[in-house]
Write the structure tokens for this entry.
Amino acid sequence: MTLFGLVRHGQTDYNLRNLFQGSSDIPLNETGIAQAHAAFDELPAVDWDVVITSPLSRAEQTGRIIAEDHDIPFGGTDPRLVEIDWGAAEGHSVEEMEQTYPGRSFPGREDHQAVADRGYDALEALEERFPGKKVLVVAHGTLIRFILSGIIEQPMPSIPNATLSLVDLEETTWRVTMIAGQEVDHSVKVVSRDQNPRFFVEKSQLAPAQVAAVSAAQDAAGDTAEGGTR
């Protein structure tokens, strides 16, 4: 069994300003650097074997800080771990873009299922590279949320910055035991590693669960008030 620790990078100025960030290469701000240093302060100690990150600077910065602070070897980056490309929304206000493009249907947005699939591809490849090891993976909120929501088979809220989620993979069984520092226990066995997609991520999950619920309520209220037009 290979254990994966999925860590979302620390805060950036785009996070602070609530802008879509996606594949844009935005560095950590001072808060994000502090979050990276404190990422494991309240968690049980795990003897991690290696740190692998997304090549985007905010994730690599976070991973290198954690690796140095906890004396874990840095094993490089994997391009499959980059965040979803939000297309035309990147660099713009989340609120404004969601009002303009319902359902996050932004021009040029990367397909949600393709994002999840490359995330599962990355973890399977790392399992083959580090069999039986404990691999810390520093990546991004939407990618991590897609990976976890597919395995646990339900929508998820946003993943907070610099939080840890745990997934273990043994042959074709995936198990989630922690989400953003909270213990859970959910396992799923897929038919084979040739199965693709391993897990389905619904288009409705493009937004975090609580955001999607608020958006749906607003849409319903708008339809009622405006005679069903929008």
Q: What stands out?
A: Residues 192 and 218 are 41 Å apart (CA to CA). The longest helix spans residues 112-129. Residues 211-230 have pLDDT under 50 and may be disordered. The helical segments are 13-17, 30-38, 57-69, 94-100, 112-129, 141-152, 209-225.
